[in-house]
Amino acid sequence: MEQVWFQAALWLILALIATLLSIWFRISTALSEIVVGTVAQVVIGALIGTEVLGAKSAWVGFLAGTGAIVLTFLAGAELDPGIFRTKWKEAMVVGLVGFFAPFLGAAAVAHFVLRWSIPASWLAGVALSTTSIAVVYSVMLELGLNRTDFGKGILAACFVNDLGTVIALGLIFAPFTMRTLIFVVASVVVFGALPFVTPWFFRKYGGRVSEIEAKYILFLLFGMGGLAAWAGSEAVLPAYIIGMVLAGSVGKDHILIRRLRTLTFGLLTPFYFIRAGSLVSVPALIATPLAFLALFAAKMVSKMVPLVPTVRAFNHEGHQGLYYSLMMSTGLTFGTISALFGLNHQIITAAQYSYLVATVIASAVIPTAIANAWFMPKHLLPKAER
C-alpha cells in the first residue's frame, strides 16, 4: 500500500510544479500539466523506470477518468440555457463545421499520405475531429470568459462538435445492440427527470455539512458513465448532458459549483492532464516524426481554414474570431478516448496510437498557447482578469 501513497505524492508534486510553471509563464494550468506529464514520463523513465510513475495503474486511471467526467459535467453546467437558445444556430453551424472538416481531412491524409488502412484512417478522422471541452473549459474558467456570452458560445459549439465525434465513433465502429437501446432509453428517462427531481431533492435535503449535493451528482455521473461504458459509448458524454440539463439549477448554485471545482482542480484534473501527457511515446515520435507532423497539419489546417470564415460570419471579427477558431481547434478528451478505443479493438497499431495521442495533445497545447499569447480578446475579459 505504501507504493500507492508514494506514487500519489509523486503525482501531486508534479501537479505543484505544473501550477508554479503556469503562474511563472502565465499559461493555462491544463497545458502546463500536459507538458509536465510528457517530460516526467521521459525523465523518470530514463532515470528510474516508467513503472515508477504508474500512469497505467488502475487507481491513477480511475482518478484521471473521474477528473474528466466531473470537469465535463462542470463545463455543461456552465452553459446558460438562455445563451444556448439564443446562440443555437451559431453553436450548430460552428460545431458541425468543426467536426466534419477535420474528420474528412484527417482521414484523407491518414489513408492517402500515410497509407493507413481504411478502418485506421476513419479512426484517425474521428480522433482528430474533436474539440477538447476539458481544455477549453479550464481556460475559460481561468480567464473568467466562462461568465461571458462569448465564452458560453464557445462551450456550446464544443458540445456540438464532440457530440458529432461520439456519434461517428458509435456509428462507424460500435454496432447498435440491445445494450445501446437500453442506454438510450435510460438516458432519455434520466435526463428528462433530472430538471424536476434535482431541485426538489436539494431543497428538501441540501445545505448540510454531509455535502449530500456532491454525493448526488457523483452518483449520477458514475451511474450513467458506467451504463454508457457498458453500452459501448463513453462515460464523458452523459456527464456533459447531465451538466447541461442541470445548468438552470445546479449551474446557478455558485457555492456548490465552487466546492466541486475545488475537488476537481485540486485533486482530479492534475491526474487527468498529467496522465494524458505521459501517454505520449517520445521514442516513436523521434523515430518517424513525419507521421506526427502530417497528422497535426491535417487537423490544424482542416480545422482552421473552414472555421475562421464560419466564426466570422457570426460577427466574431479580428482577434476575437481567431481566438474562437483556435480554441475550437484544441483536442484532448474524446481524441484520446477514440485513439484508445481503436487500440483496444485492434483498429490501429501501437505506433499509430502514439502518433494520434501525440497529435491530440499537441492540438491541446499549441493552439491554446497561440490563442492566449497573441489573440486574447482582452476587451471581453472581466475587469478582475484584465
List keywords for this structure.
17 helices; 78% helix; mainly alpha; 386 residues
Question: Could you explain the architecture of this structure?
Answer:
This protein has 386 residues and is mainly α. It contains 17 helices and no strands. Helix 7 packs antiparallel against helix 8 and helix 15 (318-328) packs antiparallel against helix 17. The protein is globular, with a radius of gyration of 20 Å. The protein starts with a helix and ends in a 12-residue tail after the last helix.
Q: For the terminal residues, how far apart are their CA atoms?
A: 46 Å
Low-confidence spans: pLDDT under 50, at least 5 residues?
A: none
Count all strands and give the number. 0
How would you sum up the major sheet? none
Mean pLDDT: 83
* Number of helices in the DSSP assignment: 17
Order of helices and strands: HHHHHHHHHHHHHHHHH
Radius of gyration: 20 Å
The proportion of residues forming helix, as a percent range, comes to over 70%
> Which term fits the overall shape?
globular
* Helix and strand composition category: mainly alpha
Percent strand = under 5%
Secondary structure: elements and pairs:
Blueprint lengths: L1 H24 L3 H19 L10 H20 L3 H6 L1 H26 L4 H10 L5 H11 L5 H25 L4 H28 L6 H19 L5 H10 L8 H25 L3 H6 L1 H24 L5 H11 L4 H12 L5 H25 L12
